[in-house]
Amino acid sequence: ERLDQGLSKTKESVLKKLTRVVVGKSKVDDDVLDELEEVLITSDVGVDTTLKIIERIEKRVAKDKFINASELDKILKEEITALLAENALNSSADFEIPQQSKPYVIMVVGVNGVGKTTTIGKLAHKFKSSGKKVVLGAGDTFRAAAIDQLEIWAQRVDVPLIKQKMGSDPASVAYDALSSAKATDADVVIIDTAGRLHNKINLMNELTKIKNVMQKVVPDAPHEILLVLDGSTGQNAFEQAKQFTLATEVNALAITKLDGTAKGGVVIGVSDQFKVPVKYIGIGEGMDDLQPFNREAFVDSLFG
Ligand code: GDP
Protein backbone atom coordinates (compact mmCIF):
# COMPACT_ATOMS: atom_id res chain seq x y z
CA GLU A 1 0.00 0.00 0.00
CA ARG A 2 0.89 3.62 0.29
CA LEU A 3 3.32 3.33 3.20
CA ASP A 4 5.23 0.49 1.51
CA GLN A 5 5.50 2.60 -1.59
CA GLY A 6 6.57 5.67 0.38
CA LEU A 7 9.33 3.80 2.16
CA SER A 8 10.43 1.72 -0.80
CA LYS A 9 13.79 3.42 -1.28
CA THR A 10 14.87 2.91 2.31
CA LYS A 11 13.58 -0.64 2.25
CA GLU A 12 15.41 -1.50 -0.93
CA SER A 13 18.65 -0.09 0.40
CA VAL A 14 18.41 -1.75 3.82
CA LEU A 15 17.45 -5.15 2.46
CA LYS A 16 20.21 -5.04 -0.13
CA LYS A 17 22.78 -4.27 2.53
CA LEU A 18 21.42 -6.95 4.85
CA THR A 19 21.58 -9.55 2.10
CA ARG A 20 25.24 -8.73 1.62
CA VAL A 21 25.90 -9.13 5.33
CA VAL A 22 24.47 -12.62 5.58
CA VAL A 23 25.48 -14.06 2.23
CA GLY A 24 27.52 -17.23 2.76
CA LYS A 25 27.08 -17.03 6.53
CA SER A 26 25.40 -19.74 8.53
CA LYS A 27 24.99 -18.01 11.85
CA VAL A 28 24.92 -14.57 13.43
CA ASP A 29 28.42 -14.08 14.84
CA ASP A 30 30.67 -11.14 15.70
CA ASP A 31 31.53 -10.52 12.05
CA VAL A 32 27.88 -10.39 11.11
CA LEU A 33 27.15 -8.02 13.98
CA ASP A 34 30.04 -5.73 12.98
CA GLU A 35 28.70 -5.54 9.48
CA LEU A 36 25.17 -5.06 10.71
CA GLU A 37 26.39 -2.13 12.77
CA GLU A 38 27.72 -0.55 9.61
CA VAL A 39 24.47 -1.17 7.76
CA LEU A 40 22.48 0.61 10.45
CA ILE A 41 24.87 3.54 10.66
CA THR A 42 24.92 4.00 6.91
CA SER A 43 21.10 3.83 6.94
CA ASP A 44 21.03 6.91 9.17
CA VAL A 45 19.81 5.16 12.28
CA GLY A 46 22.47 7.12 14.19
CA VAL A 47 25.41 5.79 16.18
CA ASP A 48 23.81 5.71 19.63
CA THR A 49 20.67 3.96 18.53
CA THR A 50 22.64 1.56 16.35
CA LEU A 51 24.75 0.53 19.34
CA LYS A 52 21.62 -0.07 21.39
CA ILE A 53 20.14 -2.28 18.69
CA ILE A 54 23.39 -4.24 18.27
CA GLU A 55 23.60 -4.73 22.01
CA ARG A 56 20.09 -6.15 22.10
CA ILE A 57 20.93 -8.60 19.34
CA GLU A 58 24.21 -9.56 21.06
CA LYS A 59 22.27 -10.45 24.18
CA ARG A 60 19.96 -12.60 22.14
CA VAL A 61 22.86 -14.35 20.46
CA ALA A 62 24.47 -14.98 23.85
CA LYS A 63 21.23 -16.50 25.13
CA ASP A 64 20.20 -18.54 22.10
CA LYS A 65 23.77 -19.60 21.19
CA PHE A 66 22.86 -20.16 17.57
CA ILE A 67 20.89 -17.76 15.46
CA ASN A 68 20.59 -18.59 11.80
CA ALA A 69 21.98 -15.84 9.59
CA SER A 70 18.88 -16.04 7.43
CA GLU A 71 16.86 -14.86 10.40
CA LEU A 72 18.79 -11.63 10.76
CA ASP A 73 16.13 -9.44 9.17
CA LYS A 74 13.41 -10.95 11.35
CA ILE A 75 15.47 -10.42 14.50
CA LEU A 76 16.37 -6.90 13.54
CA LYS A 77 12.71 -6.13 12.95
CA GLU A 78 11.75 -7.51 16.36
CA GLU A 79 14.47 -5.64 18.20
CA ILE A 80 13.76 -2.31 16.50
CA THR A 81 10.05 -2.66 17.24
CA ALA A 82 10.87 -3.49 20.87
CA LEU A 83 13.21 -0.53 21.13
CA LEU A 84 10.59 1.86 19.81
CA ALA A 85 7.99 0.30 22.12
CA GLU A 86 10.29 0.63 25.13
CA ASN A 87 10.35 4.35 24.62
CA ALA A 88 6.64 4.43 23.85
CA LEU A 89 7.64 6.16 20.67
CA ASN A 90 4.44 5.38 18.93
CA SER A 91 1.50 7.46 18.17
CA SER A 92 -1.57 5.43 17.54
CA ALA A 93 -3.85 8.44 17.25
CA ASP A 94 -5.25 8.69 13.79
CA PHE A 95 -5.32 12.46 13.48
CA GLU A 96 -7.20 12.72 16.73
CA ILE A 97 -7.10 15.73 18.96
CA PRO A 98 -7.92 15.62 22.66
CA GLN A 99 -11.46 16.78 23.40
CA GLN A 100 -10.61 18.50 26.66
CA SER A 101 -8.38 21.11 25.06
CA LYS A 102 -10.40 23.47 22.94
CA PRO A 103 -8.96 24.98 20.92
CA TYR A 104 -6.11 22.49 20.70
CA VAL A 105 -3.03 24.55 19.88
CA ILE A 106 -0.23 23.17 17.74
CA MET A 107 2.91 25.26 17.33
CA VAL A 108 4.96 24.06 14.38
CA VAL A 109 8.73 24.55 14.41
CA GLY A 110 11.58 23.58 12.11
CA VAL A 111 14.03 25.12 9.66
CA ASN A 112 12.97 26.43 6.27
CA GLY A 113 12.58 23.93 3.49
CA VAL A 114 11.91 20.86 5.63
CA GLY A 115 8.23 20.80 4.67
CA LYS A 116 6.68 22.80 7.47
CA THR A 117 4.08 24.58 5.36
CA THR A 118 3.16 21.42 3.50
CA THR A 119 2.78 19.51 6.76
CA ILE A 120 0.54 22.24 8.19
CA GLY A 121 -1.60 22.12 5.04
CA LYS A 122 -1.87 18.34 5.15
CA LEU A 123 -2.75 18.39 8.85
CA ALA A 124 -5.40 21.04 8.30
CA HIS A 125 -6.87 18.83 5.58
CA LYS A 126 -6.91 15.74 7.81
CA PHE A 127 -8.47 17.54 10.73
CA LYS A 128 -11.03 19.24 8.56
CA SER A 129 -11.94 15.96 6.86
CA SER A 130 -12.61 14.45 10.25
CA GLY A 131 -15.11 17.22 10.96
CA LYS A 132 -12.91 19.54 13.00
CA LYS A 133 -12.95 23.27 12.74
CA VAL A 134 -9.44 24.48 11.93
CA VAL A 135 -7.71 27.87 12.07
CA LEU A 136 -4.20 28.51 10.72
CA GLY A 137 -1.80 31.23 11.87
CA ALA A 138 0.94 32.57 9.60
CA GLY A 139 3.56 33.00 12.30
CA ASP A 140 6.53 32.83 9.97
CA THR A 141 6.46 36.54 9.30
CA PHE A 142 10.09 36.59 8.30
CA ARG A 143 9.54 35.44 4.73
CA ALA A 144 6.78 36.75 2.48
CA ALA A 145 6.84 33.43 0.64
CA ALA A 146 6.00 31.56 3.84
CA ILE A 147 2.82 33.59 4.29
CA ASP A 148 1.89 33.18 0.60
CA GLN A 149 2.48 29.44 0.63
CA LEU A 150 0.36 28.98 3.71
CA GLU A 151 -2.35 31.10 2.14
CA ILE A 152 -2.41 28.76 -0.87
CA TRP A 153 -2.83 25.77 1.43
CA ALA A 154 -5.53 27.53 3.46
CA GLN A 155 -7.48 28.16 0.28
CA ARG A 156 -6.96 24.66 -1.03
CA VAL A 157 -8.13 23.10 2.21
CA ASP A 158 -10.71 25.86 2.77
CA VAL A 159 -9.82 26.90 6.31
CA PRO A 160 -9.31 30.45 7.62
CA LEU A 161 -5.76 31.83 7.79
CA ILE A 162 -4.91 34.54 10.27
CA LYS A 163 -2.02 36.63 9.02
CA GLN A 164 -0.37 40.01 9.23
CA LYS A 165 2.07 41.64 6.92
CA MET A 166 5.60 40.41 6.51
CA GLY A 167 7.91 41.54 9.28
CA SER A 168 5.18 41.81 11.90
CA ASP A 169 5.53 40.23 15.33
CA PRO A 170 4.94 36.44 15.18
CA ALA A 171 3.62 36.50 18.74
CA SER A 172 1.01 39.01 17.69
CA VAL A 173 -0.09 36.75 14.82
CA ALA A 174 -0.34 33.84 17.25
CA TYR A 175 -2.43 35.97 19.60
CA ASP A 176 -4.80 36.90 16.79
CA ALA A 177 -5.07 33.33 15.57
CA LEU A 178 -5.88 31.95 19.02
CA SER A 179 -8.36 34.74 19.69
CA SER A 180 -10.07 34.07 16.39
CA ALA A 181 -10.16 30.34 17.11
CA LYS A 182 -11.71 30.96 20.48
CA ALA A 183 -14.26 33.43 19.14
CA THR A 184 -15.32 31.04 16.38
CA ASP A 185 -15.30 27.97 18.61
CA ALA A 186 -12.62 26.24 16.52
CA ASP A 187 -11.27 22.83 17.55
CA VAL A 188 -7.68 23.23 16.50
CA VAL A 189 -5.26 26.06 15.71
CA ILE A 190 -2.01 25.40 13.87
CA ILE A 191 0.61 28.13 14.14
CA ASP A 192 3.57 28.31 11.79
CA THR A 193 6.82 29.82 13.09
CA ALA A 194 9.98 31.10 11.44
CA GLY A 195 12.63 28.43 11.18
CA ARG A 196 15.76 30.41 11.64
CA LEU A 197 18.48 28.53 13.44
CA HIS A 198 20.63 31.68 13.42
CA ASN A 199 21.46 31.35 17.03
CA LYS A 200 20.10 29.27 19.81
CA ILE A 201 19.34 32.07 22.24
CA ASN A 202 17.37 34.03 19.65
CA LEU A 203 15.43 30.97 18.65
CA MET A 204 14.66 30.18 22.27
CA ASN A 205 13.58 33.76 22.99
CA GLU A 206 11.40 33.95 19.90
CA LEU A 207 9.59 30.70 20.67
CA THR A 208 9.23 31.54 24.35
CA LYS A 209 7.68 34.88 23.51
CA ILE A 210 5.16 33.25 21.15
CA LYS A 211 4.24 30.71 23.84
CA ASN A 212 3.80 33.37 26.51
CA VAL A 213 1.55 35.45 24.32
CA MET A 214 -0.50 32.38 23.35
CA GLN A 215 -1.09 31.69 27.03
CA LYS A 216 -2.85 35.02 27.41
CA VAL A 217 -5.60 33.55 25.24
CA VAL A 218 -5.36 29.83 26.01
CA PRO A 219 -3.61 29.30 29.36
CA ASP A 220 -2.21 25.82 28.64
CA ALA A 221 -1.18 26.51 25.04
CA PRO A 222 0.65 25.27 23.09
CA HIS A 223 -0.55 21.71 23.66
CA GLU A 224 1.70 20.39 20.99
CA ILE A 225 5.08 21.62 19.78
CA LEU A 226 5.57 19.78 16.55
CA LEU A 227 9.08 19.73 15.12
CA VAL A 228 9.21 19.07 11.39
CA LEU A 229 12.35 17.35 10.10
CA ASP A 230 13.31 16.50 6.54
CA GLY A 231 14.01 12.77 6.59
CA SER A 232 16.08 12.97 3.43
CA THR A 233 18.74 15.05 5.17
CA GLY A 234 19.91 12.23 7.42
CA GLN A 235 22.40 13.56 9.93
CA ASN A 236 21.20 17.16 9.52
CA ALA A 237 17.87 16.06 10.91
CA PHE A 238 19.66 14.84 14.06
CA GLU A 239 21.44 18.17 14.42
CA GLN A 240 18.19 20.12 13.99
CA ALA A 241 16.43 17.90 16.51
CA LYS A 242 19.21 18.67 18.95
CA GLN A 243 18.95 22.43 18.46
CA PHE A 244 15.17 22.59 18.65
CA THR A 245 14.81 20.27 21.63
CA LEU A 246 17.27 22.51 23.47
CA ALA A 247 15.39 25.65 22.47
CA THR A 248 11.85 24.53 23.32
CA GLU A 249 9.75 21.63 24.67
CA VAL A 250 9.26 19.70 21.46
CA ASN A 251 6.76 16.93 22.18
CA ALA A 252 6.00 15.57 18.72
CA LEU A 253 7.90 15.00 15.48
CA ALA A 254 6.85 15.01 11.87
CA ILE A 255 9.42 13.49 9.55
CA THR A 256 8.88 14.42 5.92
CA LYS A 257 10.10 13.43 2.46
CA LEU A 258 10.61 9.79 3.34
CA ASP A 259 9.32 8.89 -0.11
CA GLY A 260 12.35 10.23 -1.95
CA THR A 261 15.11 8.87 0.23
CA ALA A 262 16.95 5.80 1.45
CA LYS A 263 17.63 7.56 4.75
CA GLY A 264 14.41 6.44 6.46
CA GLY A 265 16.42 4.99 9.34
CA VAL A 266 16.47 8.51 10.69
CA VAL A 267 12.94 7.94 11.98
CA ILE A 268 14.19 5.23 14.34
CA GLY A 269 17.27 7.12 15.48
CA VAL A 270 15.83 10.57 16.05
CA SER A 271 12.88 9.37 18.09
CA ASP A 272 15.09 7.13 20.21
CA GLN A 273 17.82 9.66 20.77
CA PHE A 274 15.63 12.62 21.63
CA LYS A 275 12.84 10.71 23.35
CA VAL A 276 10.18 12.48 21.36
CA PRO A 277 7.50 10.43 19.61
CA VAL A 278 7.25 10.55 15.86
CA LYS A 279 3.65 11.54 15.37
CA TYR A 280 3.49 11.92 11.60
CA ILE A 281 5.48 10.91 8.56
CA GLY A 282 5.38 12.60 5.17
CA ILE A 283 5.53 10.32 2.17
CA GLY A 284 4.71 12.66 -0.71
CA GLU A 285 3.70 16.16 -1.71
CA GLY A 286 -0.05 15.62 -1.94
CA MET A 287 -2.73 16.48 0.59
CA ASP A 288 -3.14 12.88 1.67
CA ASP A 289 0.55 12.07 1.91
CA LEU A 290 0.81 12.51 5.64
CA GLN A 291 0.34 9.49 7.87
CA PRO A 292 0.15 8.99 11.59
CA PHE A 293 3.29 7.09 12.55
CA ASN A 294 2.75 3.54 13.63
CA ARG A 295 5.88 1.64 14.67
CA GLU A 296 4.66 -1.82 13.68
CA ALA A 297 3.50 -0.66 10.28
CA PHE A 298 6.71 1.28 9.78
CA VAL A 299 9.01 -1.59 10.70
CA ASP A 300 6.88 -4.02 8.68
CA SER A 301 7.24 -1.81 5.66
CA LEU A 302 10.99 -1.62 6.04
CA PHE A 303 11.64 -5.32 6.53
CA GLY A 304 8.73 -6.60 4.47
P1 GDP B 1 8.92 24.84 4.47
O1 GDP B 1 9.90 25.85 3.94
O2 GDP B 1 9.49 24.08 5.61
O3 GDP B 1 7.60 25.41 4.78
O4 GDP B 1 8.77 23.76 3.32
P2 GDP B 1 7.58 23.48 2.31
O5 GDP B 1 6.39 22.98 3.02
O6 GDP B 1 7.41 24.65 1.43
O7 GDP B 1 8.18 22.24 1.50
C1 GDP B 1 9.37 22.30 0.75
C2 GDP B 1 9.25 21.34 -0.43
O8 GDP B 1 9.21 20.01 0.06
C3 GDP B 1 7.99 21.53 -1.25
O9 GDP B 1 8.31 21.37 -2.61
C4 GDP B 1 7.08 20.39 -0.78
O10 GDP B 1 6.17 19.97 -1.78
C5 GDP B 1 8.09 19.31 -0.47
N1 GDP B 1 7.60 18.33 0.51
C6 GDP B 1 7.09 18.55 1.74
N2 GDP B 1 6.78 17.38 2.35
C7 GDP B 1 7.09 16.39 1.49
C8 GDP B 1 7.02 14.94 1.53
O11 GDP B 1 6.61 14.30 2.50
N3 GDP B 1 7.46 14.28 0.41
C9 GDP B 1 7.94 14.95 -0.69
N4 GDP B 1 8.37 14.21 -1.73
N5 GDP B 1 8.03 16.28 -0.75
C10 GDP B 1 7.61 16.99 0.31
Which stretches of 5+ consecutive residues score pLDDT under 50? Answer: none
Let me know the number of strands.
Answer: 8
Report the average pLDDT across residues: 92
Structural class: alpha/beta
SSE string: HHHHHEHEHEHEHEHEHEEH
Which ligands, by name, code or SMILES, are bound? Answer: guanosine-5'-diphosphate
User: What's the N-to-C terminus distance?
Assistant: 12 Å
Strand content: 5-15%
Largest sheet: 8 strands, mixed
| Tertiary shape | elongated
Tag the structure with descriptive keywords.
single chain; 304 residues; alpha/beta; 8-stranded mixed beta sheet; 8 strands; 12% strand; binds guanosine-5'-diphosphate
Structural summary, described in words:
With 304 residues, the protein is an alpha/beta fold. The chain is built from twelve helices and eight strands. The chain has helices spanning 2-6, 8-22, 30-42, 47-64, 72-86, 116-129, 144-157, 170-183, 200-217, 235-247, 266-274, 295-303, and strands spanning 104-109, 134-137, 161-162, 188-192, 224-230, 252-256, 278-282, 290-292. The protein has an eight-stranded mixed sheet with strand order 3-2-4-1-5-6-7-8, with helices on both faces. Helix 4 packs across helix 5 and helix 9 (200-217) crosses helix 10. It is elongated, with a radius of gyration of 21 Å. The protein starts with a helix and ends with a helix. The mean pLDDT is 92.
Short summary of the structure?
This protein is an alpha/beta fold and 304 residues long.
Task: Summarize the helices and strands and which ones pair or pack.
Layout: H1 2-6, H2 8-22, H3 30-42, H4 47-64, H5 72-86, E1 104-109, H6 116-129, E2 134-137, H7 144-157, E3 161-162, H8 170-183, E4 188-192, H9 200-217, E5 224-230, H10 235-247, E6 252-256, H11 266-274, E7 278-282, E8 290-292, H12 295-303
